[in-house]
Amino acid sequence: MWRMWLLFDPRRALIGLFTFLMVLALLIHFILLSTARFNWLANPTPPAGGAQQTSQLDTPLIQLG
């Protein structure tokens, strides 16, 4: 394994790897933002039959003891 780093410069290899991963992450996020279901910025209408958010504050408090 150590001989591989004799062929490649570690700094350039790691910078290339991090650049590739950042571009891939941005690409995935922009693809998700272009869909109506996964666009968390524009707040589109929720899909029909989705889960409803409930708050625990709506339920009455129970005294113990």
What is Rg?
Answer: 24 Å
> How far from one another are the termini?
65 Å
Give the beta-strand count. Answer: 0
What letter string, H or E per element, gives the SSE order?
A: HH
Task: Give the helix proportion (percent range).
Answer: 40-55%
Shape: elongated
Strand content: under 5%
Largest sheet: none
| Helix-strand makeup class | mainly alpha
Low-confidence stretches: none
pLDDT averaged over residues: 81
Q: Which assembly state applies to the chains in this document?
A: single chain
How many individual helices? 2
Region (Disordered): 46-65
Function: Antenna complexes are light-harvesting systems, which transfer the excitation energy to the reaction centers.
Protein name: Light-harvesting protein
InterPro entries: Antenna_a/b (IPR000066), Antenna_alpha (IPR018332), Antenna_alpha_CS (IPR002361), Light-harvesting_complex (IPR035889)
Any key phrases for this structure?
elongated, Antenna_alpha_CS, Antenna_a/b, 65 residues, membrane, Light-harvesting protein, Light-harvesting_complex, 43% helix, mainly alpha
Which secondary structure elements does this structure contain, and how are they paired or packed?
Blueprint: H1 4-7, H2 10-33
